[in-house]
Amino acid sequence: MADHYEVLGVSRDASEDQIKKAYRRLARELHPDVNPAPEAQERFKLVTHAYEVLSDANSRRQFDMGGQDPFGGAGGFGFGDIFDTFFGGGGQRGPKSRAERGQDALIRVELTLQEVVFGVAKEIEIDTAVICETCSGSCCRPGTSMALCDICHGTGQIQRQVRSLLGNVVTSQPCGTCRGYGQVIPEPCLDCRGQGRVRARRSLDLNIPAGVEDGLRLQLSGQGEVGFAGGPNGDLYVDVTVKEHDVFGRQGDDLTCVISVPMHDAILGGLTKIDTFDGAAQVEIEPGQQTGDIITLKGKGVQRLRGSGRGDLKIRVQVVTPSKLDSKQRELIRKLATMRKSDSIKLVQQSHGFFAGRRKH
Ligand SMILES: [Zn+2]
Ligand SMILES: [Zn+2]
Asked: Which pTM was predicted?
């Protein structure tokens, strides 16, 4: 068990006043608002605990007599544990830190399909909380600083002796004056009214990787609101929605589209050009191309979000039957029909027919 006199750095016959002074000096140095290092916080707890024991004449006498620690020493099933079990007291000892983590924020960004294919950098504006520049998050007017709370002497807790079935016990409650922080702000910063942060509009460069899907949520850690009293930032979440494109669709990493091919081109084959996100691309129609056939342009799809390379552009062929023929054209077709007498209209198995071709698309 820690020797409370050593912890406070006072002799065993130190006066009440000396103990109080020693505590105040250490608290000013170790308080979580001043010194956020974990070791400092541990020491602060020890120091506060030592002060709790030695500042009360009864508990000091008990401690002097046999090292009996009335609050339960480090390790073992201490008094504090029993107390919490019986009375449901908030087990927290020592002041709480004023600095709090900021809130997470959520924004929506709408992208075009083209932006999805290649990725995009966007500058966006968010309404958020940023650190107060006047006080740098300290909450205090420049030139002033936090002061130890006079009521709880920096512990953030007020102790009261009450009688209970365990005998006299000490209950602790958050100090009302400092709201449990152990420190008060004598002169709050005027710009943030002692909050350490202000509302502001902030612009942010958002790099959206290629290949994101509609409905995806990106997490940007530390880009949310700054916390109270210089606490760490929350995270920013970006919900991505993708606008529908008039011509192109998307299936996984592939892009899809449909081209209409005049009957004679479908019969004889030919070359055509279509506009893609990569510019004009040549498409080859094979002789005898059917409705539902898929022509694949390799690597003209969406950049893969995970992995490298791009998907393909899948072009579905739709053969257009001419509906307005003049008499000369009709005569030619009639001649062709006579020459291909063996062709006839018949039922086909669906797996080889139109719908199968369409499903593949
Ligand atoms: Zn301020
Ligand atoms: Zn207080």
From this structure: 0.59
